[in-house]
Write a structure and sequence with these properties.
Order of helices and strands: HHEHEHEEHEHH
CATH superfamily of one domain: R3H-like domain
Subcellular location: Cytoplasm; Nucleus
Main location: cytoplasm
Oligomer: single chain
Number of strands: 5
Distance between the termini: 78 Å
Keywords: Cytoplasm, mRNA processing, mRNA splicing, Nucleus
Structural class: mainly alpha
Largest sheet: 3 strands, antiparallel
Shape: elongated
Pfam family, one: R3H
InterPro entries: G_patch_dom, R3H_dom, R3H_dom_sf, R3H_G-patch, Splicing_assoc_domain
CATH class of one domain: Alpha Beta
Length: 246
């Protein structure tokens, strides 16, 4: 083997990313190689910039041309997002659909969604990086407007926050405020107080107007003179686990 060939020589330190043509004496050939090298570097830079633009839009594709869900849904997914991804999946040719990482309860909900469309589903990954994967089978709903809407109508609105990134609560509130699938105060976790974030009924509310006509005013209790009642409603704390019940 000819170890003196330029292609086998080690590059000197500090010259990374540069084409070494020190041993080529033909100036025309050297210029041609340098030009091809420079053009290749320019094209690589342009492709990198294009990928950055696609990543910012959430349109960057991952392996085998599949959409990069992590880039597309940096905070999480609404139920409308999930349905839209399933719609595109049913219309396409891919056999699997991987969604972003989410907690166990949300993955279970996605499995229920998959079942509505007769898709097989399972979870993959470890720890807070576990994510649901949907599989197309011979029983999977063939996409059609009526068939899709019939399956989609069974699903309620909800938001599925990313489980592998921080700021879960902020993400829920942010996405919930956008409408079309956010659930904010409509979905609760263990220990939450139902209606804790509900606003006071405004003066335009018919129920409040009726009570005010009967003598009630804000800050006073309901009830007869000899039975003042309570100032605060009875709170209901959500319990989703069996801990502390025995």
């Amino acid at each position: 083997m000819d170890f003196d060939r330029p292609s086998l020589k080690k590059k000197p330190k500090g010259r990374k990313g540069k084409l070494i043509l020190d041993d080529i004496s033909d100036s025309e050939f050297k210029a041609s190689m340098q030009s091809a090298w420079d053009n290749d570097r320019v094209k690589k830079k342009e492709r990198k910039q294009e990928r950055e633009v696609l990543r910012a839009r959430g349109s960057l594709t991952g392996k085998h041309g599949k959409p990069d869900m992590k880039a597309r849904y940096k905070e999480g997914m609404s139920i409308e997002d999930v349905k839209e991804e399933i719609k595109e999946f049913l219309k396409g040719d891919n056999t699997t659909l991987s969604l972003p990482a989410m907690d166990k309860a949300d993955r279970k909900f996605v499995h229920e969604i998959a079942n509505a469309f007769k898709l097989k589903s399972k979870s993959a990954g470890l720890g807070n990086k576990r994510y649901p994967i949907l599989y197309r089978t011979s029983r999977t709903t063939v996409y059609g407007v009526r068939a899709y809407e019939a399956a989609a109508s069974k699903l309620s609105r909800r938001f599925l926050p990313r489980n592998d990134v921080g700021g879960r609560a902020g993400a829920v509130l942010k996405r919930g405020a956008r409408g079309g699938g956010g659930f904010g105060a409509a979905s609760y976790r263990d220990g939450d107080v139902v209606g804790a974030s509900a606003l006071e009924l405004g003066v335009e509310n018919k129920g409040r107007a009726m009570l005010e006509k009967m003598g009630w005013s804000a800050g006073t209790a309901l009830g007869a003179l000899d039975n003042k009642g309570i100032l605060q409603p009875v709170s209901h704390v959500v319990k989703t686990t069996k801990a502390g019940l025995g």
